[in-house]
Amino acid sequence: MVEVKNLVKRYGDTLAVDDVSFTAETGEILGFLGPNGAGKSTTMNIITGYISSSSGTVTIDGCEILDDPEGAKSKIGYLPEIPPLYIDMTVRKYLEFMFSLKRVTLPKREHIDEVCAVTKIKDVQNRIIKHLSKGYRQRVGLAQALLGNPPVIILDEPTVGLDPKQIIEMRNLIKGLGKKHTVILSSHVLSEVQAICDRVIIINRGKLVADSSTSSLSQNLSRSNDMTLRVVGAPTSVLSALRAVEGVYKVDKGQKTGDNCCEYHVYSERDKDTSKAIFYAMAKNNTPIVMMRGNELSLEEAFLRVTKSEPHIADKSERGGKG
Ligand code: ADP
Ligand code: MG
Question: Which residues form the pocket of ligand 1, taking CB atoms under 6 Å from any ligand atom?
């Protein structure tokens, strides 16, 4: 279990992390979502003991990172944004080297074999790292994080720069890890977090702006009642009848789906359930509805809403070149 309390990190005038608190429970995959520059890497570097915080505490499985840095670090496997690979070594030699560096006490051969099996890099064990694809290198980085079987795995943007096939492989690996470990992974890609994580926290400009399960986050914010309808009848007639329904503020005509049948996207005011009124309006108009579907808000839209409603935070200079 990871507990982060009131974490603050300043770089001069920049407040990179602004009073962030959250916990990750055992066996949970927690997504740490936010745009570039939000403070994700800074937070992860503090949790893993790479850099110190300006204030606040981090506890890993009962070990406070400041009181017992060795103890806390031994419970964490970390895959930083740029994996710390020695690219002139073979995969096997590198893992053996990291094994010693981390002073892992498990049986060396068996343990490295196991880690290679889990991350599916057995076939490339004797290859030199610099000759591997980005996808394989990332898996070697993950293997390194798994050495010593730490209960907590922290992954900073683990799929950045991978191609779609490699992304799917990496996602599956991470989901598998979630069964045994507490996993915290950062991403600026919403679909990523939606696909892998049980819970998501959203950080923007150093501040936490949301903390919830991935599905309830989109549900909480999905009160916009956006719908897609398929209606038989002349589009001009359908459009004007739909626009006349109370609570509907916008109707777009979609694609034609058959003879005299068309799709319509209907947007209603928040908290207004217009579906029944639409049904009766179409019946009265003699233009029958043959399909009606509510459109749930994607996390992407949810995210925009959450971050947009964020008030004034002092502007910070962008350092750029990161991501
Ligand atoms: P993310 O990982 O979410 O993209 P970072 O944690 O890398 O964000 O950065 C958060 C903020 O802190 C950014 O404004 C960045 O410019 C700033 N920052 C990060 N590292 C440093 C540093 N070493 N010195 C000064 N500013 C930094
Ligand atoms: Mg980052």
Answer: 11, 14, 16, 34, 36-42, 316, 319, 322
